[in-house]
Design goal:
By secondary structure, the chain is mainly β. Helix content is 10%, strand content 49%. It contains three helices and 13 strands; from the N terminus they run βββββαβαβββββββα. It has a six-stranded antiparallel barrel with strand order 1-2-5-4-3-6. The longest helix is centred in the middle third of the chain and has 7 residues, at 88-94. The protein is elongated.
């Protein structure tokens, strides 16, 4: 099964012809040139493709997007606030290496113990949170100066030293 990475959210309808504004976390300006489709998670783990008919840069982290079958403002409004995902291959093509979202798929290691794979990166004003799953439970790992030891892009690992008791809050 293909791996999907969340890149952002459809934040608004634009104009009357069904255009949408995609706010992304790819870390660089992009018009998603040559990208065929984005994916929207209709149900948990069920991603449906939406084919792109036009895309244009709006700002550093926003794109005007036209999708096949979305012809009116009303059509577009049905998709507003939906999260947008890309396949792993497309994600790697469009994400900046320095973008926090580029950590998706990396393994979090705490003092030599493998904790899990980063499923989502949540940007907060003063730190990043990485969502992983341990024992089928959602765990948020803060990545800030106090806990982050090293990011090894070659091995796809994020090395951390977590404060005592942090995992107990989630796994308790």
């Amino acid at each position: 099964m293909a791996e999907y990475f969340k890149i952002g959210k459809l934040v608004a309808a634009f104009g009357i012809n069904g255009q949408l504004i995609l706010q992304h976390e790819l870390g660089k300006k992009t018009a998603l040139k040559d990208l065929q489709a984005i994916f929207i998670e209709e149900k948990k783990k069920s991603f449906l493709p939406w084919f792109i008919t036009a895309a244009k840069i709006k700002s550093e982290n926003e794109i005007y997007l036209s999708l096949e079958g979305v012809m009116t403002r009303e059509d577009a409004l049905k998709l507003v606030q939906k999260e947008v995902w890309l396949t792993e291959t497309d994600f790697k093509k469009f994400a900046a290496k320095s973008a926090p979202a580029s950590l998706l798929g990396y393994t979090v290691i705490d003092d030599g113990n493998e904790l899990g794979t980063i499923l989502e990166v949540i940007e907060q004003p003063h730190q990043l949170l990485c969502r992983i799953e341990i024992q089928s439970k959602e765990v948020l790992i803060p990545l800030n100066e106090a806990f982050l030891e090293k990011i090894d892009h070659r091995k796809k690992q994020v090395l951390v030293t977590l404060p005592e008791g942090l995992l107990d809050i989630y796994l308790g």
